[in-house]
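Example protein was shown:

_____
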Amino acid sequence: FLFFLIVLKRLDPATMQAPSRPQPRPGDPPRSDRLAAMIWEGFLYAVRHPICGPFLLLHMALGLVIRPLIELLPAIVGESFEGNVATLALLNGSIGAGAVLAGLWLVGISDNRRLIDATFAAGIISPIAGFALVAIAIELPAVLASAVLGGILVVAGVGTQSLVQISVDESMLGRTLSI
């Protein structure tokens, strides 16, 4: 995860142009209209792409690490807040509020560099907010951490998809974003 963040910070938005479609390498399956071959071709393209690969890695990391915290929120509330239903509702609502505020904030970002930085920041802040949610059994910090997690998921998701979309060759766009 740390390696990804280092690579992400070194990206240059000036070079974020769709590269030409890569030439097949030895061992790659032949280009075909078959669905399985097209999926495989999209996967190889995404993995080898200098922008798409790291951003999809971030998306996967947040999906495997941060998203489960939100799914486990009832258990976290049950353990840390003695099963208080009102607290569970408050934390769930703050996740939604954080997501809405992040979405409104993202509307104003039109520069690729700012979008890269925002996505990078989401990757750095996410473990801190996740730790705060789980470790601090005080309601107000938990509400703030939940709002931050909701915002992080939106910033990272929208940032990743937007940057992948503008950097990938049009012929590979559907296959790459579906990964």
Q: What stands out?
A: The chain has a mean pLDDT of 82.
